[in-house]
Amino acid sequence: MLTMKTISFKTLGCRLNLYETDALASKFRERGFVTDGDFENSDAEIFVINTCTITNQSDKKSREYINRAIRKGSLVVVTGCMAEQYAQNYLPDSAQVIVVDNKHKNLIYEIVEAHLGGEIVDTKNLDGDVFGFEAAKETFHTRSIVKIQDGCNNFCSYCIVPYVRGRAVSRPVEDILQNIKTELGYGFKEIVLTGVNISKYNSDGVSFEDLIKKILEIDGDFRLRIASIEPDDFSDSFVQLFKNPKLAPHIHLCLQSGSNAVLKRMHRHYTREDFMGIVDKFRAIVPNFNVTTDIIVGLPGETDEDFADTLEVAKKICFGHIHAFKYSRRSGTLADKMDCQIDEKIKTQRSKILRDLSEKLSTDYLKSFIGKRQILLTETIEEDGFVYGYGENYVRIKMKMSDGVETNQFYDVEITCIEGDVLIGKED
Q1: Which of 10, 65, 280, 401 is least surrounded by Cβ atoms within 10 Å, i.e. has the fewest?
Q2: Coil vs helix vs strand at 7
Q3: 234 with 148, same domain?
Q4: What number of other Cβ atoms are within 10 A of residue 270's Cβ?
Q5: d(CA 6, CA 44)
Q6: Residue 135 lies in a domain
Q7: What is the bridge-based pairing of β-strands 410-419 and 422-426?
């Protein structure tokens, strides 16, 4: 076992990366390491950068953090999707830098241990496992993220993920249930399910809907949240599951475009009408059901009319939040080869319009909670005398501190007003 050393992690991208970093950091702590959460100012002996390559900006940020860590003279471990795709193109051939692909990410502790012991590790000789992460006893978040699936078979025309994460695979049901029970035993009160395409989960005939039912049957006072998910044709029985108070009324449902023509070029397998119908189903069960989303602007061939269609759908749905992305060319994808690439200035203009609309829609959505109640899971106590956290609808709430209030606890609060992008709650 390694002796006391300091390690610092930087995570870019999706919740799947967050889950994997949490699990890795917990494993290092359990084995005697000190984790330094201040990556930028850290003098750690080891840096781990869990990269993302979903956009050009993601690549740029990943490179910046990698180069910053290299300049510190420490051991640098580079992993994640950008490392999988591009690291060999520019990382120095140096014993200071170790590149670990996604398949072997769960073995980073063992790889570092061997390296510090003077061994040269070739991951080709190791059996990696995309689900081979230990339950995280301590994380960088109040919520516990649990990975249930990896990879994707959709091959959307703009997306590099299937090439860097591989084909879809599902984690065994019993492993997931045991992981969740362990996390609940550690004291976590909210479980977030994550993966690349979790709606396609299927392990030994157990579907995603079946898995949710099994999780909801676990004893305990906890909340279950579904992370980013594709807009599949959810059954009525799946939608009915949201009547269970354990299942948070929020889904990050990926629209990508409100234009049917663009959706077709994206190779998305639904129409704008299909998407709005899905949202209607959820809000028929929970009227203020929070739907957040991703939207890409500037796919090759996107016209002003296509973009107007996207804005129209966004207004009709009133998303709780929109992650607006400018289309980034990814080598090897179908969209990279398409004609009619959009000028960067136009993409920037459309992105700003969409972000401005998102801000307005988010404010409108938050105002709908005034006078209503939320179950606040407290996360942090700040110097301003307020405790902060999230309600079941994934709305950020702050509440004035009072005697006995603690973090990582549920509180039933009344929403009295809105302050910026935060709701103000009070206990009775």
Answers
A1: 280
A2: strand
A3: yes
A4: 17
A5: 5
A6: no
A7: antiparallel
In-domain check, residue 178: yes
Q: How confident is the model at residue 232 (pLDDT cuts 50, 70, 90)?
A: confident
Instruction: Say if residues 301 and 341 touch (Cβ distance below 8 Å).
Output: no
pTM: 0.91
Alpha carbons 201 and 292: distance in angstroms, whole number = 21
Please say whether the beta carbons of 81 and 160 come within 8 A. Answer: yes
The reply to whether 120 falls in a domain is yes
Q: Is 389 exposed, middle or buried (0-12, 13-18, 19+ CB in 10 A)?
A: buried
| Tokens standing for residue 186 | 């550690």
Cα–Cα nearest to 108, from 196, 42, 43, 31: 31
pLDDT at 1: 44
DSSP state, residue 230? -
The percentage of the chain sitting over the pLDDT mark of 70, rounded to a whole number, equals: 97
Q: Report phi then psi at 264, rounded to 5.
A: -65, -45
Any bridge partners for residue 252, and if so which? 228, 292
d(CA 19, CA 144): 8
CA atoms of 427 and 311, how far apart (whole Å): 38
pLDDT band at 93 (very low <50, low <70, confident <90, very high): low
Q: Which of 426, 378, 428, 384 is nearest to 406 (CA)?
A: 378
Residues in the chain: 428
Distance (Å, whole) CA 135 – CA 183: 7
**What range does the domain containing 18 cover?**
6-125
CA 261 to chain centre: 28
Burial label for 428, CB within 10 Å (0-12, 13-18, 19+), is: exposed
Identify whether 130 is part of a domain: no
Q: Is the dihedral of CA 361, 363, 366, 371 positive or negative?
A: negative
Structure tokens that stand for 23 in this block:
């699990």
| Other beta carbons within 10 Å of 127 | 9
End-to-end alpha carbon distance in the chain: 51
Q: What is the pLDDT of residue 384?
A: 84
Number of domains in the chain: 3
Q: SS3 for 322?
A: strand
As a whole number of angstroms, the distance between CA 88 and CA 79 comes to 12
247 DSSP 8-state letter: B
